[in-house]
C-alpha cells in the first residue's frame, strides 16, 4: 500500500512497467500520456482493444492528485476497478447501484485522500454533494470514457453527458482526456464542442487491421462451411460466434463429434463452467470456443487465428469489435461471416417490434442496414467497414475476399421482377419456400388449395434452380425491397424500394458468386 501520490516522481514508462506490467507503450498511448502529463486537453480515438485505459490510468498515477474517470456503464466501471485493485492501485467506483455501506466507505477513503483513481457515473459526479466533495480534492486528470455518449448523433447518446461541459468551472486547470472507439467526424466534432475543448489535440488511431483477412459468404450448409473454415486452424485458437445459447451448445457438440476441441460459452453457463472454459481458452492449447456475444469482455488471448460468425451481428461496430479479437499478435488471421436472408429479416423484424424509443430504433435500424449492406458488398470489405467509422481508404485493402477474387455480378432485373410479382400475387403472406414453389411450378396441396397454380406467375421461373431463387430472395432482402411481415417468415414488399424494380425503372445487379455458392451447396447436400 502507501499514500495516494506514491507513484508521483516515477516516469510514465516506469509506471507502465511496474504497475501494469507492460514492456512498452503501444500506438498512440505515449503521445496521449505525454499530452496529459503536460496538462493539455486531448481526444483519443482508438478502436476497442486499442488500449485506451492506459492513456489516462498512467498519468492519473504519475501526476499528483486523484484521477477522475467518467464512465457511463456500471458493469464496465466495476470491471476496471477490480482489474486495477489486482494491480495494487486503489480504485473505487461511485454509482447509483452502490449500497449505503459501500458508498460511505468510499466517501471515507476520499476524505482521507486514499483513492488513486475514482470511476464515477456522470449523474453522480454532477450531483451537488459529490461535486462539493471532489472539488476539495486535488485532481490529477479527468478522463471522459465513451465520450461519444455526449453526441446526440451517435448511437449511445446520454443526456447526462451534456452537463460535463461545466467540468472546467469546477476543476479549473485539470487536464481532460476524452476517449472513444467511435470515430466518425461528426461525433468527433460534437465531442470537442460539447466538452468545450476546442484546443484539444485529436489523436486518432487507424481502425485498419491489415492482418485480418476479412471474408463474408452466404450461408448454405453452415456446418460444412464451418468445418471448411476451421480446417486450416486445427492447431489454433478459434472463436465461433452464434446468435443463441442453444445454437452454441449444438454447434460445439457437432464440432466435438468431428474431433475438434470445441467448447460452448454463453451467459447461461454456471460460474464454474465459465471459469473452466476461460481457463482452457487462456491456457494456450488449441480450442474452438463457440460463443454468444457474452464471450468478449476481458478476452485477450493474442493468438486467436480465426473468428467466424454463423449469425450476422446487429451493427458494423459490434462486428468490428468481435473480429478484433482475432490476431491481436499482429499475425495473419482469418475472419469469416456467414450470412443469410432469414437473419436479416429476423433482425429487422425484432427491431421493429422492440419497445425502444423511436429515435433509438432509427439509429439501430441504420446500423443494421449498414451491416446488411456490408455483407452483400461487392467491393473491398475493409474499405466498406472502415467507412462505417468515418475512415477513408484510398486504395482497396488487397487482403479481403473481394479484393483477392473480384465478385462477378449479373443483371438480375428480370429475376427480381418475377420474384416480387409472385410475392405480390400470392398476397404477401407466404414464406420463401412457397413463393419459390409457385415460381418454379411445383404443385402441392397448399398451392392448389390457395389456387396459386392458376396465377399468371405460376411456373414462370421454372428454368432456374431453387437455390438460385433463394439467393435472389436474400439479395432483395439485403437491398430492402423485401421484408418479413411477421415472425413466421411471410415475405412482403417494401413499396418504396420494390416499386421501381417492378416497373422496370431500376436495374438490379446481383452477386453471381452468391448464387453459385448456394447452388454448389445444394448439389453437395442433395
Ligand atoms: P480499450 O479500452 O481501448 O478497448 P483496453 O484499455 O481495455 O482497450 O486495452 C485492451 C487490451 O490491451 C488490454 O488487455 C490491455 O491489457 C492491453 N494493453 C493495453 N496497453 C498495452 C500495452 N502498452 N502493451 C501491451 N498490452 C496492452
Ligand atoms: Zn479489400
Automatic annotation (TrEMBL):
Segments of skewed composition (Polar residues): 519-526
Enzyme class, UniProt record, top EC level: isomerase
Domain Rhodanese stretches: 169-273
A GO MF term: DNA helicase activity
Helicase C-terminal domain: residues covered: 222-372
Membrane-spanning residues: none
Entry superkingdom: Bacteria
Reaction(s) the record says it catalyses: Couples ATP hydrolysis with the unwinding of duplex DNA by translocating in the 3'-5' direction
Protein family per UniProt: Belongs to the helicase family. RecQ subfamily.
Name of the protein in question: DNA helicase RecQ
Organism from which the protein derives: Acetobacter sicerae
Organism phylogeny: Bacteria, Pseudomonadati, Pseudomonadota, Alphaproteobacteria, Acetobacterales
Residues of the full protein shown: 25 to 550 of 637
Amino acid at each position: 500500500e502507501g499514500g495516494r501520490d506514491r507513484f508521483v516522481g516515477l516516469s510514465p514508462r516506469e509506471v507502465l512497467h511496474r504497475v501494469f506490467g507492460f514492456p512498452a507503450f503501444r500506438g498512440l498511448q505515449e503521445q496521449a500520456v505525454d499530452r496529459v502529463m503536460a496538462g493539455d486537453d486531448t481526444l483519443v480515438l482508438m478502436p476497442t482493444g486499442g488500449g485506451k485505459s492506459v492513456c489516462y490510468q498512467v498519468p492519473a498515477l504519475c501526476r499528483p492528485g486523484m484521477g477522475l474517470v467518467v464512465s457511463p456503464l456500471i458493469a464496465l466501471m466495476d470491471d476496471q476497478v477490480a482489474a486495477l485493485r489486482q494491480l495494487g492501485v486503489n480504485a473505487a467506483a461511485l454509482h447509483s447501484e452502490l449500497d449505503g455501506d459501500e458508498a460511505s466507505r468510499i466517501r471515507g477513503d476520499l476524505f482521507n485522500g486514499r483513492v488513486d483513481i475514482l470511476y464515477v457515473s456522470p449523474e453522480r459526479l454532477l450531483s451537488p454533494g459529490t461535486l462539493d466533495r471532489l472539488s476539495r480534492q486535488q485532481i490529477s486528470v479527468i478522463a471522459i470514457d465513451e465520450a461519444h455518449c455526449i453526441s446526440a448523433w451517435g448511437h449511445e447518446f446520454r443526456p447526462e453527458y451534456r452537463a460535463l461541459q461545466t467540468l472546467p468551472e469546477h476543476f479549473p486547470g485539470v487536464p481532460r482526456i476524452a476517449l472513444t472507439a467511435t470515430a466518425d467526424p461528426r461525433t468527433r466534432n460534437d465531442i470537442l464542442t460539447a466538452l468545450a475543448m476546442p484546443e484539444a489535440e485529436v489523436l486518432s488511431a487507424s481502425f485498419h487491421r491489415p492482418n485480418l483477412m476479412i471474408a463474408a459468404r452466404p450461408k448454405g450448409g453452415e456446418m460444412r462451411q464451418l468445418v471448411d473454415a476451421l480446417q486450416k486452424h486445427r492447431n489454433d485458437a478459434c472463436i465461433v460466434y452464434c446468435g443463441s445459447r442453444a445454437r452454441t451448445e449444438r454447434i460445439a457438440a457437432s464440432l466435438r463429434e468431428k474431433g475438434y476441441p470445441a467448447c460452448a460459452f454463453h451467459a447461461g453457463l454456471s460460474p464454474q463452467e465459465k471459469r473452466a472454459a476461460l481457463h482452457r481458452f487462456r491456457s494456450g492449447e488449441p480450442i474452438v470456443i463457440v460463443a454468444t456475444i457474452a464471450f468478449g469482455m476481458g478476452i485477450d488471448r493474442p493468438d486467436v487465428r480465426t473468428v467466424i460468425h454463423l449469425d450476422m451481428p446487429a451493427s458494423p461496430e459490434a462486428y468490428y469489435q468481435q473480429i478484433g479479437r482475432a490476431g491481436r499478435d499482429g499475425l495473419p488471421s482469418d475472419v469469416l461471416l456467414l450470412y443469410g436472408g432469414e437473419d436479416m429479416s429476423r433482425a429487422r423484424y425484432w427491431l421493429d417490434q422492440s419497445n425502444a424509443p423511436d429515435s433509438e430504433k432509427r439509429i439501430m435500424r441504420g446500423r443494421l442496414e449498414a451491416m446488411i449492406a456490408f455483407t452483400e458488398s461487392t467491393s473491398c470489405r475493409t474499405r466498406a467497414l472502415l467507412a462505417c467509422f468515418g475512415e477513408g481508404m484510398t486504395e482497396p485493402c488487397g487482403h479481403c475476399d473481394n479484393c483477392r477474387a473480384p465478385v462477378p455480378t449479373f443483371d438480375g432485373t428480370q429475376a427480381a421482377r418475377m420474384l416480387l410479382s409472385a410475392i405480390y400475387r400470392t398476397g404477401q403472406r407466404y414464406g420463401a419456400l412457397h413463393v419459390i414453389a409457385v415460381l418454379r411450378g411445383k404443385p402441392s396441396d397448399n398451392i392448389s388449395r390457395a389456387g396459386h397454380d392458376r396465377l399468371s406467375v405460376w411456373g414462370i421461373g421454372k428454368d432456374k434452380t431453387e437455390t438460385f431463387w433463394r439467393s435472389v430472395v436474400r439479395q432483395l432482402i439485403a437491398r430492402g425491397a423485401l421484408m418479413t411481415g411477421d415472425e413466421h417468415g411471410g415475405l412482403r414488399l417494401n413499396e418504396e424500394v420494390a416499386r421501381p424494380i417492378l416497373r422496370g425503372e431500376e436495374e438490379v445487379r446481383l452477386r453471381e458468386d452468391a448464387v453459385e455458392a448456394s447452388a454448389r451447396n445444394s448439389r453437395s447436400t442433395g
